[in-house]
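Feature request, filed as a ticket because there's no other form

It would be nice if the structure record came with a short human-readable summary line next to the tokens. Right now we just get the raw output. Example of a typical job, pasted below so the devs can see what we mean:
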Amino acid sequence: MDKKDNKNPIARFIGSPLFLIIGIPVAVLLVFTFCRSYYNNYKINQEITTLKEEIGSLENKKLESMDILNYVMSDDFVEEKARTELNMKKEGENVVVFRNDFKDNEDGGLSGDGSRQNISNPLKWWYYFIKKPMPVERQ
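Raw output as currently delivered:
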């Protein structure tokens, strides 16, 4: 009897060239599938990390929005808006109004009597810095 005849059929198949022809492509396919699964797992973990960071930033934004909402619903906000936009005052409060009687001319000169002044801009600045009143032109 020959030694090849004593081997069992599984050992003979593993040692045959047919096993190599079938086994190598199957092994390559398994390695490729494993690599693809590993890469998909990596991408999913990256996305989970990104979403967790986004959740944190959205929670912070929510807290800021809640603070703004609480302020908008407060009496302080209502009072501020009533004073600035509706020109209202509190009961018992006195209001002082300052009027500006000066009229703005086309050339930018201001005069108390409404007459037009033909004074250059640098000269106006000169009078401003030396703190002297501008001379009034008589017509």
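Something like this underneath would help us a lot:
The CA atoms of residues 3 and 12 lie 11 Å apart.
The longest strand covers residues 103-104.
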